[in-house]
Amino acid sequence: KPLRVAIMGLGSYGKRVADAMKDCKRAKLVGLVSGTPSKVESWKKEFGIEDKNCYNYQNFDQIKNNPDIDAVYVITPNGLHKEHAIRTAKAGKHVICEKPMATTAADAAEMVSVCEQAGVKLLIGYRMHFEANTLEVVRKRKAGEFGEIKFFQGLSGFIIGDPTQWRLDPVLSGGGAMMDIGIYSINGARYMIGEEPLWVTAQEVKTDPVKFKEGIDETITFQMGFPNGVVASCLSTYSMNYLDKFFLNGTKGFAEMQPSTGYGPIEGRTHQGPLTNPHVTHQTTQMDEMAAMILDGKQAEIPVDGREGLKDMKIIEAIFEAVKTGQRVDLV
Ligand code: NAD
Question: Which residues pair with 245 in a beta bridge?
Fold first, then answer.
């Protein structure tokens, strides 16, 4: 029996996930949640969804009475994740929630506790955590093939277009590039180094205060200090393209990946040679693996649960505080 999933938020990423799920072996798209009836009509036809599995934001809570849906994948703007995830949990359905899981660490913590109390899983849509070349580098690091890890660099950014989109609205986004794309460098540092940061420092550059208003970061450089003495040096930006790169350096070798988080093939090499795992659509692998986690209790090699997402939210908040104060911020 597959994991029967409803997608909430039929936007551009929702469509990408729905398309990717066509190739899933363990997960199946069976339901829709949308405020736009015309989208529901066209998706229903394209994906063969039954009427009884379609909801809007008003009648969504009735999903609790629908035995044919196991999980809801929340793919709405960041500022709505908390409400949407909590309503899903209270309806007794497992929650898969896009990144960033919330717009504050307090909201993320509340989501974790509501899901735990409701006895449902909360998984964050971290697709890189299941990608084959990424996992290969992590396995090599765990096996000591890079020796002692000394340094990580993460570069994450793109030039954002339409100035009216929700990503540039602080209420719906919770922040700018950091919440959207900088989070990949935070994730990368944590899974590549294999430790949790103790402190952060950060600096912000804003060249366009009209497009990037108060509460929307344009470019932030940040550093994270780890218990083993490693410092990760990272860049998050909405105003430069061609920034999708990870570099991990150790006493016996290195790994470099570029692109490191884009949708297409993840390419790179280590001191031992190129990374050669074949590309599989990330969201297909992610949804099959998440189905195995929910249905069989399988453990992810790199965790993607709500508590992991909460760690990232705490780091993001510390980065924002470090930008504001100019001080090093300790993560307890
Ligand atoms: P989008 O704007 O294309 O889609 C958002 C959807 O939410 C739209 O269908 C919109 O109608 C709906 N929506 C519901 N209530 C809304 C409201 N009050 N205001 C605005 N829209 C509302 O955005 P997207 O690119 O699909 O991003 C959605 C989420 O997915 C975000 O959290 C984003 O960070 C995440 N995302 C993740 C990845 C990834 O690789 N994991 C990639 C892209 C986006």
Answer: 155
pLDDT of residue 69: 98
Question: Which residues in the chain come in under a pLDDT of 70?
Answer: none
Whether 176 lines ligand 1, by a CB cut-off of 6 Å, is no
Half-sphere exposure of 196 (CA within 13 A, CB side): 13
> How many angstroms separate the first and last alpha carbons of the chain?
42
Q: Which of 91, 125, 159 is the endpoint of a domain?
A: 125
Amino acid occupying residue 329: V
Q: Whose CA is nearest to atom 26 of ligand 1?
A: 13
| pTM of the shown model | 0.98
Does any domain span residue 163? yes
Map residue 124 onto helix, strand or coil: strand
The per-residue DSSP string of 221-257 comes to EEEEE-TTS-EEEEEEESS-SSEEEEEEEESS-EEEE
Give the ipTM of the model, two decimals please.
0.99
Is residue 77 in contact with ligand 1, taking CB distance under 6 Å? yes
Task: Identify the residue whose tokens are 């998706």.
Answer: 43
Q: What is the pLDDT of residue 231?
A: 97
Q: Which domain holds residue 68?
A: 3-125
